[in-house]
Amino acid sequence: MAAVRQVQVTFDCAVPERVGRFWCEVLGYVVPPPPEGFATWDDLEGTLPAERRGSAFACVDPSGVGPRLYFQRVPEGKVVKHRVHLDVRVGAGLVGEERVAALEAECARLVSLGAARVRLLPADDDNESCLVMQDIEGNEFCLD
Questions:
Q1: Residue 119's beta-bridge partner residues?
Q2: I need a labelling partner for 73 at 20 to 30 A (CA). Which of 50, 66, 123, 136 fits?
Q3: By C-alpha distance, which of 34, 36, 53, 55 is closest to 45?
């Protein structure tokens, strides 16, 4: 039997802390404590060469259930649609107008944090409605 492994989701971005703090708000994640020997993350950053400062950020599910999210600075901007994205499950178990209302309410909250609403994908014979969005750097995700 194969061993179960932990998963980390990594985001390429321009400003890791900004994107990471956005996702903390979306998911209720927290910033983990700094490594041993450092009182704060800023203390650690101060020990890095100038070109590495602000190059990474991480956050975790405080319950320990969800994956760690890691944000790393890359020089290039986003060019095309990602082939993998996150689905934020806010409408699980809901159908019809009740589901759309839950999606729209969460959409409004996330837009106030800097996200962009792209489009509502209405329910069809196989799928319930979902809402396509972009985070503060244009990375696609869905409210599902």
A1: 132
A2: 66
A3: 53
- Give the list of residues 6+ apart from residue 4 with CB closer than 8 angstroms, or none: none
Q: Is the dihedral of CA 102, 122, 67, 14 positive or negative?
A: negative
E strands in the chain: 8-13, 56-59, 68-73, 86-88, 116-121, 130-134, 140-143
**With 0-12 CB in 10 A as exposed, 13-18 as middle and 19+ as buried, what is 143?**
buried
Tens digit of each residue's pLDDT, the chain (144 residues) = 667 678 899 999 999 999 999 999 999 999 999 989 999 998 988 898 888 888 999 999 999 999 999 999 998 877 777 778 889 999 989 999 999 999 999 999 999 999 999 999 998 888 899 999 999 999 999 999
pTM: 0.85
Return the amino acid letter for 114.
G
Distances (CA, A) of 111 to 28, 34, 46, 75, 104: 16, 30, 33, 26, 10
Report the distance separating Cα 43 and Cα 21, nearest Å: 19
Instruction: Name the nearest CA neighbour of 83 among 142, 140, 143.
Output: 140
